[in-house]
């Protein structure tokens, strides 16, 4: 049984809370097995609600969810999913290893699993220190360790870097990379693009409960029309004509005496050669790429999402 290609599948999933908030709105999402998958969106986008639905903590209002080929929350599925969704409750006065031994008992796995997962998150050296003495980054890593106790094939981590300083973030980032090895699927949410970009194979962006983009970081850039070259060449008209003749060039515009060329930046060397062979002087040629940050802001920015609210403003000072 089960699906052998997608660890997570959501079809047309909506969650409306009793107060009337639609936290997740007709969401379609597929997380391929064995990927580290970034689930990105601004605060309130619906990430936590989605993750809670995946483990059966929240029931969808409508739609269909399969996690490891099963509906969420079955005992068999929960045995194969490790989740860090809310801060786990650790005892401040107990050591890291004692906290994990307790968690191991709750999860019905042998106590010895505690040492294995401590090593996996790089906390062996501090295993015997009291939890309250841990840095925030170490606390988060202990949370990840607890999620690993069951040797899950799917790991769901809700904003594991939230509130960490840059050093803590880079500690966790190293860890997240290593968690995706051995065929494990990792679903990782964040509202900070840089964190998922460096770690994830694929990224889905949600805003106001809706999926607004899904793909590799390169695909997300391409979906936003990124892929431009800036070229300064003489004579500029001849250069423009020469570039327009190239079948992979989508457009050429002259801006302030330079050419903005819509084309895959990978074509840079080829276009340069073509211009030089045509007797054109090339003074400058460089890609002007949208950063993924710009792409993300464009996808989740107020222009896309805030129209209803902005129309309720009654004027006056801003
Ligand atoms: N139990 C609840 N009852 C009512 N509304 C809720 C509940 N939980 C979340 N919401 C609302 O649903 C929307 C989505 O919240 P959710 O926590 O899923 O988003 P998020 O992307 O995880 O954001 P954050 O990063 O801030 O946690 C928000 O408007 C939130 O206020």
Automatic annotation (TrEMBL):
The keyword tRNA-binding does not apply. Keywords: ATP-binding, Nucleotide-binding, Transport. Residues 8-233 form the ABC transporter domain. Belongs to the ABC transporter superfamily. The lineage of its organism: Bacteria, Bacillati, Actinomycetota, Actinomycetes, Micromonosporales. GO terms for molecular function: ATP binding; ATP hydrolysis activity. InterPro entries: AAA+_ATPase, ABC_transporter-like_ATP-bd, ABC_transporter-like_CS, DrrA1/2-like_C, P-loop_NTPase. It comes from Micromonospora coriariae. This is ABC-2 type transport system ATP-binding protein.
């Amino acid at each position: 049984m089960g699906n052998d290609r997608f660890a997570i599948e959501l079809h047309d999933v909506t969650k409306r809370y009793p107060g009337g908030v639609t936290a997740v709105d007709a969401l379609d999402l597929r997380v391929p097995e064995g990927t580290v998958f970034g689930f990105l969106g601004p605060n309130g986008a619906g990430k936590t609600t989605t993750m809670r639905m995946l483990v059966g903590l929240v029931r969808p209002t409508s739609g269909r969810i399969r996690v490891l080929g099963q509906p969420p929350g079955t005992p068999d599925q929960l045995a194969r999913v490790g989740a860090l969704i809310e801060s786990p409750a650790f005892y401040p006065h107990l050591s890291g290893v004692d906290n994990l031994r307790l968690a191991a008992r709750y999860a019905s796995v042998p106590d010895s699993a505690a040492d294995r997962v401590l090593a996996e998150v790089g906390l062996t050296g501090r295993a015997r220190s009291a939890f309250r003495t841990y840095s925030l980054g170490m606390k988060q890593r202990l949370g990840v360790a607890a999620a690993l106790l069951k040797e899950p094939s799917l790991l769901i981590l809700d904003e594991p870097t939230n509130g960490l300083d840059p050093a803590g973030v880079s500690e966790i980032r190293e860890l997240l990379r290593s968690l995706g090895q051995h065929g494990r699927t990792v679903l990782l949410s964040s509202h900070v693009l840089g964190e998922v970009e460096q770690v994830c194979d694929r990224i889905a962006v949600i805003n106001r409960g809706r999926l607004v983009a899904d793909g590799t970081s390169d695909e997300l850039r391409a979906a936003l029309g990124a892929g431009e070259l800036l070229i300064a060449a003489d004579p500029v008209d001849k250069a423009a004509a020469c570039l327009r003749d190239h079948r992979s060039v989508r457009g050429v515009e002259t801006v302030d005496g330079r050419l903005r060329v819509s084309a895959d930046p990978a074509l840079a060397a080829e276009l340069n050669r073509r211009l030089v062979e045509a007797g054109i002087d090339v003074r400058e040629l460089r890609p002007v790429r949208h950063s993924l940050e710009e792409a993300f802001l464009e996808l989740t920015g107020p222009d896309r999402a805030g129209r209803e609210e902005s129309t309720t403003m009654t004027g006056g000072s801003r």
